Amino acid sequence: MSPDLLIVGAGLAGLALAGDAVRAGMDVQVLDKSRGVSGRASTRRVALDDGREARLDHGARFFTARQERTRALAEEGVQGGWLRVWTRSVSEWRDGTVTTPPPEHPRYVPPAGMSALGRHLARGLSVTTGAEVTSLERRAGGWRVHTRDGASWEAPRLVLNLPGPQVAPLLDDLVGDVPGLAEAAREVGRVRYDPYWATGAVLERDVEAGWLALRLFGHPVLEWIAREHTKREPGHPPALMLHATPDWTRAHLERRPEEVRPELLEAARDVLGDFTPLHAFAHRWRHATPTERAPGPAHWDPALRIGWCGDGHTPDPHGPRVEAALLSGWALARRVLGQGEDERERASLPPRTPEQEPNL
Asked: Distance between alpha carbon 68 and the CA centroid of its chain, in Å?
């Protein structure tokens, strides 16, 4: 039997939407091309030769909670022990000088890694991984999606929880045959993202530092360094997570991870001094931080019963981040369920401004 709602993409927005839809009584199926859930809220596990395991967040860096529902989720997580406040202030590097701003809003992290947030949201959901959707088909009863392995899935309602540059190509083949889809397809096609290379390193010993993370300004290669073990439980191996700047990443976007990794480690030595990695890896995110976003919290066409959500939308004025993805998914759930928009969603919300920090 076909589900009531099919969601392509098991990132945080899609999982947030799925959870609300299931609680409202819908039969929901989530598909994702990856091996697990959480999207860019991703954690790499590294097994060391001595039997220890390291966990490094190579996607989303942390989780903020400025809105009522995300604050409730954060409080639930802290009380449940799967989430904690990591820091209230991120230190800054400028021309070799490190300063630490006064404490402000909390940045939350799961001690088990950022992917634990997605696993929490996915509890009780039907999720099929390893299913990469390659095309969509409009049918009399709703929608059919086709996957790379030749499988197909059908449902009367369809949501795409994908970056805008991945949504637009799926819609292109439908625009001429599905009235009313063209303008929405053009709008999501205008969404743009900054890419970045990430490199994680498990260290022989910790670097000498009094900070938990550095946001770098004016560095030619790096924009972020975190002492990842400070997010974890005591006894976790010392580890660093490095994020390259978007400009450096674009200039090196098509290089192989084994080529990029030593260059990012050397850039970190310029900032931190020498250190010895026991294990290191590099990962490329083509669609990391949205720089041009679609207006409104999400898109839903009640006549066609198709929509999309994610941090490429503008659910509140605080910029693209983990919280934006969650708010987008919850907002779309209200529309899919026919509950309409709340007052905040009807307001005209400004796009991201440079001073607003992303979580990714």
From this structure: 20
